[in-house]
Design a protein that fits this description.
By secondary structure, chain A is mainly alpha-helical. Chain A is built from two helices and no strands. Chain A: Keywords: Membrane, Transmembrane, Transmembrane helix.
Chain lengths: 63, 174
């Protein structure tokens, strides 16, 4: 019984997006583009449920 | 996990095989995925304050207005002259310069280099910090020479009933 590593790939990609969104958010904040800051915050918040769903869906996937 | 059972003592390269550590130091695939999902949660929560401050700025709560403070009467201040005052606090030095009949500029005059007081030099038409010869443009407050790199914070001025009032400190703009 071998587990699939697809979940790790997906979660790593989500972490990658998290890093990008966080950095953009901070930059937009200091450039005083507050609407963009809010957008990136929303994206970051959306990534958390996405990550949880991705975890639950892929934790028992077999190869 | 293969053939450890039924072999007593099974070969293990430590002397603590009788302690059941429950694999507590092992990061398996499941644990790694849990960590990643948790990291997403940490990112989400830690981005909330940034968004909250951004929303606060958008709603205009950051625009703080101080009680208006009378600086001088219009008659007392000839064109080209400056008067020093304190705004908004009792220890925040500021300077008001009358450039023309109806044009006034005011700045907090602590030099943005090392906070020496900046003076208005009428003959040269510049604001000069005597400590390290920093110079500021009188129209905008932006630095033109010397060590300072940031503009002086501008103070908004209102003229009412032939008296000059300081209204608020403009936001520092990068």
């Amino acid at each position: 019984m071998k587990r699939s590593y697809i979940g790790i790939v997906i979660l790593c990609f989500i972490l990658f997006l998290n890093i990008i969104f966080t950095q953009s958010m901070v930059h937009q904040f200091f450039y005083e583009n507050y609407v963009n800051t809010l957008i990136f915050m929303g994206l970051n918040l959306l990534l958390f449920p996405t990550a949880v769903i991705a975890y639950k869906k892929t934790i028992d996937v077999l190869e | 996990m293969s053939n450890k059972n039924n072999k007593i003592p099974f070969s293990e390269d430590n002397y603590t095989h009788n302690i059941n550590r429950l694999n507590e130091r092992k990061l398996d695939r499941r644990g790694f995925m849990k960590t990643l999902a948790g990291a997403a949660g940490v990112f989400a929560i830690s981005s909330i304050p940034w968004g909250a401050v951004a929303a606060k700025e958008l709603m205009g709560l950051g625009e703080k207005e101080y009680p208006h403070k009378k600086i001088a009467d219009v008659d007392e201040l000839p064109i080209g002259d400056a008067v020093e005052f304190k705004f908004p606090g009792a220890h925040d030095d500021a300077i008001l310069i009358r450039l023309s009949e109806n044009k006034y500029v005011a700045y907090q005059n602590a030099c943005t280099h090392l906070r020496c007081p900046v003076y208005w030099v009428k003959d040269q038409g510049e604001m000069i910090c005597p400590c390290h010869h920093g110079k500021f443009d009188v129209e905008t407050g932006s630095p033109t020479a010397g060590p300072p790199r940031r503009p002086l914070p501008e103070i908004e001025i209102k003229v009412k009933d032939s008296a000059i009032y300081a209204v608020k400190v403009k936001r520092y703009e990068a």
